[in-house]
Structures are given as structure tokens and as C-alpha cells.
Amino acid sequence: MGIYIGIDPGVNGGYAVIEESISDGSITADAQPWDNANFLDMISYASDKGGAIVACVEKVASMPHQGSVSIFTFGKAAGYIEGALSALGIPYQLVPPRTWKKEFSLGAVKDDSIAVAEHLFPDVNLLKNPRCRKKHDGMAEALLIAEYARRRMRTSR
Fold first, then answer.
1. What is the rounded average pLDDT of the residues 100-122?
2. What is the mean pLDDT of residues 132-142?
3. Are 56 and 20 spatial neighbours (Cβ–Cβ below 8 Å)?
4. Less Cβ around it within 10 Å: N or C end of the chain?
5. In the chain, what are the domain boundaries?
6. Using an 8 Å Cβ cutoff, are 15 and 5 in contact?
């Protein structure tokens, strides 16, 4: 089994897991909005499940005119993600947005990421919670980052 984790860090980010069966090639996927505790539970579960695991984390930097509190919060989240993956021995790669987005012919429009994620994974719910009406772009982008990992960083079989 190959397990691929995609992470879109940040307050409006998300994380996703794609599991690919070696025996029959079947794929299951799930995406969630960002939550520290749930993320740790998910990667612990994936680590305990066995099989090869690889993660891709979107490599992002601060933007011009972004406040120092915002930058600090983002850096703290990025450190949490890398620390958790390292602690569990899950190999990961930081991937710039332009790199993984090129795989899917995407630009900066978040709704395009949602459309591509829905096309590739029609069974994955991209709503943050049952009350939401708008699909969560952080979950969609995390799912596409996980798919990028599956396509480009195949685990050893």
C-alpha cells in the first residue's frame, strides 16, 4: 500500500490522504480542513497502518505587506507540520505552489483548484462542515498536493 499525504498549511489550509492499493491499484482519498489535533491523529494512523508513506507540504513564504503576527502564526504552523512528520519518521518534501499547480495546469484562482479536485476525486467531500455551502479551497488544494505526491513521488513497492 502507498499512502500519500498532501498539506496546504495555514489557517484556511487543509490536509488530505490518498491510499493506493498495490494489489489492485484501487485508490481511496479523504480531505479535511486544517486542525492540529486531527492532523496528528491522521498521520499517526497512517504511520501505524504500515506500507510506504510520503508527504508533500506546500512551500510558501510570507507575502509583501503581511503583518508580523500573521507571519509568526504561519511559521508556527509550518514548524508544527514539519516537526510532526519528522517525529513519526514520515518522509516529506516541500513543494512550491507553482510546481504542484503546473501538474494540473492551475493558476492562482482557488475555484479552479476546487473544480480539478472534484473532477479527479468526485467522491471526496470538500465542505468544511455540513453547514457550509462553499467548497473549501484549502481541502481541495491539499488533495491536489497529495495527488501530486502520488504521481511524482511514488513510494517504493
1. 95
2. 94
3. no
4. C
5. 2-152
6. yes
